[in-house]
């Protein structure tokens, strides 16, 4: 049962399906009487999907599309999602960022058994926290998310002014089958990381690249909400032209977000940024990637403003600055920034090394199967420090809890920024804190999912 310790996984992957915990199904939460219920069925299935003009590939999907069907509900709803598995491999659904109760977290071997081919499994939770979240398989996730098993989970606030337009934009990158990237394999001079980067050569938003990206429509005077979700393994710098505010990150509102202009918002794997654009000139926009590679022209999202006559807003491309989340929003003293004594303080040094299996990604020099679970009690305050001593980015994700970023590289973050995924770049030291308020067994791992599969994961358990 959930109260017992999980035996250490025999494999370095956090996704090994150890033990039989399918009886959790019986203990899933149920709606309260009178609570509105929103029901969905997500069928994991193969599909052929046109990623880019002339490039159609075999993908894995929820309900036949990439991304899978959007789950959009209203705060207070009970959400019931039945997963039907029509693939030849086991799958699950993990609700990334949404603080579900542990039985619905979708981590095989930890909260459930993976759902076998032909089987179904039902997830249930009350959507009481508004915001932008997403869902994805957590079984062999470095492969399954890569193949398309993901979608958006949007919880609309119960009472608040709705934007005029509300668009979900999920970023991802793909490898063209039989494409030029395969030439990189034998070269020997590339690191694993460089090789991986060079293999992704199709960049998509909502499963479409380049000319297949649908333009967004807006009217002069509209407030347009753009919900960016990064479902891929590379960070994407997205240039937002004109005036905008970043109103939330990882589903959590930012207090008093100021208007910024013409900035690049860097979105790490797993992160979300909600942007509110005020359409105050009758010109079209081009929201485009400013990544450090040759594929930027594949990621251009046109915003067509009615009455624009096709005129596009001008941008000084050489003067663009990067949006700085940690110096944004109103300085605030939160419960977490006032904590005097943390029940657990833990430093996770992130790195990689070679062992008998090739390259592994480590926390304190160990891989998942060698790392003890972090132990907490309900009500504990927990402080984690992520220190990246390696050479590649590690966007670190904590399941089941929102955390506050307290410090970045020795500098206190004055605004109480709440997140579930935080980018830790080489050399960075990031301090986060959360309250242990969601009993269960949870994962902490890098969201470059190859790194998680390669060992960079640790469990958090309640005693
Ligand atoms: Cu989105 Cu354990 O991950
Ligand atoms: Cu990583």
UniProtKB/TrEMBL annotation:
The keyword Magnesium does not apply. Keywords: Copper, Metal-binding, Oxidoreductase. Residues 46-159, 166-292, 356-462 form the Plastocyanin-like domain. One of its GO terms (molecular function) is oxidoreductase activity. It comes from the Bacteria. Residues 1-38 are annotated as: Disordered. This is Multicopper oxidase family protein. The chain holds residues 67 to 529 of 546 of the full protein.
